[in-house]
């Protein structure tokens, strides 16, 4: 290669340079293997009955699956002495029947070295013609494979060899020009493994600015480098690269992702604070801001409540000890927590539900649902009542639920509300059919009776009589309604 | 053992055999006794190729799962790591190797088998940790396509979709192309290649290139496949999001089928013996293998679940009748004949018992109110109703904190059926999700957006109705019992991907050019030259064989739909299915979610 020396130096990242090679097997070892292969191939000719052998063993013994056997063999490892004995035996016996490095017909041999053997025509040939089998061991690993270092492969050949899992030294590619040709060849081959290997080489031997600049016009390689940096956790280089590319939103998200690795809450909070200014998309910015604010809140609440709980002064904490800390919980969970432990607090405190609602602009629906669930769990039915009571300017009270009363009923029922409480809300369900369904399902007899009465449905009401207890107040009520001569029944 | 693999039009046993041979060859390279340390994600796929007995024949005495710390004691000559080339696994291996007692004698030799490909990156990583030299053999096991059934192959590459569509990493496509080359080596060159999508284009290019570079791979096998159809998953993002309604699809949706095995709650499988009392209910989940080797399963797997009950009761009658026969057996000959049939009858009976139990388990769920509500919403979206506003049911589910994946499936489905959501609607959903499930999910939402599953409607135009009408994706008059169209697999919705395959076979894609242009990525056709002697002369009435390769995953319902087409009397085409991974909406969305827990070490 006749490139100006200075030119070469320019791109040569000398301080960091290490040759990109993998230590392959040394020569001695490869020779050993060669000889063993030869022995094996001899065996091939002498004795070739592999298929028979297999059939016997398959049908002969009950076979376990691999995952089953892992447990099996792992547990038996305690009696090591015994197992050694048996292993020795097994070893020797199976050696006798050792199956020869058989036919050429395995996944890898379908491709390896085929072009070196033009006579080797087809797979069916390979299967029928026993003579071909002798090639097999050699096919697996041509001798030349062990002599990579000295040879002068072109970029194309280098990539092709690497694709076949062979070891290649890349250090020969010294000029920027050569390296880029190599990279382009790798990309053209589509093998991510090779592309990444070349990128590692370039990353080591090129100045950062140059690497970035060249990758900017090579999108596929660029994606691979980004993926690689993410995977190896080279966060700093990754962020530099994304910044160089002006992919600011990705920088922001990638940086934000880091918070997941920070266990200490104080540090995490600090980190999130630092994320707020990052160039997220408009809507994400507000989410990240909220995330920070929430954690900040949680830290204050947690410190406070832990103290309260330990002191044992607060009744609610004594009666319902906290099962877990509130740190890092979602917003709605936090709201539930504060409705549970801090419901009556004034809006000024950080832990009060109304304060949370305001700070995070929690929609009415969401708020009511959460508060309802929390208060119902505590069986604080008065609070539940207050939640749905509105007063108009004349002082009249009215029941209103932004979530629909059927949902209210469901939540109360899930929290084992008594029938008296339940039926009050069943009564408020507007849709008659839903109301009847819920009332029947949860045995709110009064509501059922009243509804049938309002519907003037004598047949249904009569039928319902068998669902209530004999001699109960409900039965009496049904009878009195049925006997009421004022009602003009529709049937 | 693997008879079901040869039951189809293409004998896939040959592929399995090739895999077994390769495995044996590797094991024999490491002479002496061995212990295998398994990357857990590999045991399932390997189980489809070989069982423990094969390993044992080659002196594998112990097997462990890969985990950090010291390797268990085992007096073996060789320790072999079977792993996917992933960096986090390299860290564990490094830990194992470094903790190995150097003083022990005899020393144990280490080897690595990478599946499906050696990774230079991983080896580099090991080198940096200073342990690369400890490995005597570092090899690869090209297990690309694993035979799952007589007409089904999968690469079981969990992250393929994410890598292709989120990270633009095409490594799994390279493996797909390699797998296809292996298939062609075994079953002949596939003369016609069709494709739709960016990834499909890449794979076709790679195949053509590989063929050029290995002139030796020109083989003289009579081609088994007539056509290869390559389909990108992102051409049809809709189908996996919908709940599958075939028997097999529902088993997968509810319990998750892993490498043809399913684990079921044990209660319904308790042995009903008298006098034992109901006390000792089994606590271990019941594990069953599901494939076409089981006659009954092969019959019902692809049916709409609503048609399964009647088949089961019919079978029950037949089996009872068969057992009744014993009363009529009078002569020795008759009795002998009856006895000879007993094993088969008993197998049939236990198979029937199992599937009756499974059907009961599923029925408990499909008849629940929530399943019904969820399905109603899905079907509304797919038929184009109210896709442009915030959906009440989804809101309710968020409020009740249903599993996040369920929410994401529904929201994505709505987005796909509306060619993206209105900005206001999207923002509303996002806000509710983040407030309820945690702000960190902003990362997951961004991933979904990048993959095109959840996005704002940019063009201001909704293409879905046109696509739906042209491809007849929604069929109002669906027949679940005796289907006449593939839409039975989703009780009304005909999977887009399979419709494309169907229309390709007849009348050809030229009839739907306009719609193809609306779907992402190029569509193309390539021909691979065959030597003159190998060109097929089709017998009259002989079906064509098409290999459909789903890049990025396929669902059981789609497979069922293709099998339905194979069996159509005047269909003219039989299908073999290959994929990067068998998926359902849940496993698919999960693969796109940001891992929120830090790594365990």
From TrEMBL, chain A:
The keyword 4Fe-4S does not apply. Keywords: Cytoplasmic vesicle, Endosome. This is Spermatogenesis-defective protein 39 homolog. One of its GO terms (cellular component) is early endosome. It comes from Falco tinnunculus (Common kestrel). The keyword Cell wall biogenesis/degradation does not apply. Gene3D superfamilies: Vps16, C-terminal region. InterPro entries: Spe-39, Vps16_C_sf. It is found in: Cytoplasmic vesicle; Early endosome; Late endosome. One of its GO terms (biological process) is intracellular protein transport. Its main location: cytoplasm.
From TrEMBL, chain B:
Keywords: Cytoplasmic vesicle, Endosome, Lysosome, Membrane, Protein transport, Transport. It is a peripheral membrane protein. SUPFAM superfamilies: Sec1/munc18-like (SM) proteins. Its main location: cytoplasm. One of its GO terms (cellular component) is late endosome membrane. GO terms for biological process: protein transport; vesicle-mediated transport. Pfam families: Sec1 (PF00995). It is found in: Cytoplasmic vesicle, Autophagosome; Cytoplasmic vesicle, Clathrin-coated vesicle; Early endosome; Late endosome membrane. Belongs to the STXBP/unc-18/SEC1 family. Plays a role in vesicle-mediated protein trafficking to lysosomal compartments including the endocytic membrane transport and autophagic pathways. Believed to act as a core component of the putative HOPS and CORVET endosomal tethering complexes which are proposed to be involved in the Rab5-to-Rab7 endosome conversion probably implicating MON1A/B, and via binding SNAREs and SNARE complexes to mediate tethering and docking events during SNARE-mediated membrane fusion. This is Vacuolar protein sorting-associated protein 33A.
